[in-house]
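Bug #77: duplicate submission created two jobs. Keeping one. Sequence:
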Amino acid sequence: MRTAYGAIYILRPFERGIQETLGKYRRFVLPGMGFQIPIVSVVRVRDVREHTMDIHPQSVITKDNVEIQVDGIMWVRPAIEEEAIKRTFYNIDDWKRAIIQLAMTNLRQEFGDLTLDESLVARETIATNLQRILNTFAVEWGLSVSKVEIRLIDPPDDIKKAMHKQKTAEQERRSMRLLATGEFEAAEQQKLARIQRAEGEREAAIQVAQGRAEAIRLVNEAAEKYFTGNAQTLK
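Kept job's structure:
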């Protein structure tokens, strides 16, 4: 916030203000140049752009009694309407500090309702819930919380080591499953190859047998045609 005491004041496009005369609210001030009577009147100016604000790192206790470190970031801006700008001045003394403290308090509550495992996969859900809760209160201060993100969820070292061991064990189990699957598929392929080879050999044997049978048939036909009994009739 800045305050204009001189006879001439200028508000930039991203600013809104209120003018007070003898300590009382007089009017809403829009961007541009204006005039006032020094000492009698004063213009208080509010920057209505998005303000990037850190949710400071803090320890929270999850539902299953694990202490973790968390932090976040949020984007907050004063609303541009006259009533909202008035609220930023008259309903709260330090809106930035107030919204940060509110975010920290409710962040602890959000994680306190979840177990550690749930917390690690619920960043977006927590951020959405926190934004909704903050906006419920922020409107009374003339503010709008446009976005919240959870940046850090840091379990204790012993928990991280256990999680790392669990992850390593799971990767090993997955590798063993893949290896077993590969060996099974290879065995199935070898089995199929043996079946196909045996089928081929059977077909070949059938063809050989059929060839031999045909040869015998031809020999028999020749014998019947050219031989009578044991004597050969020559022509």
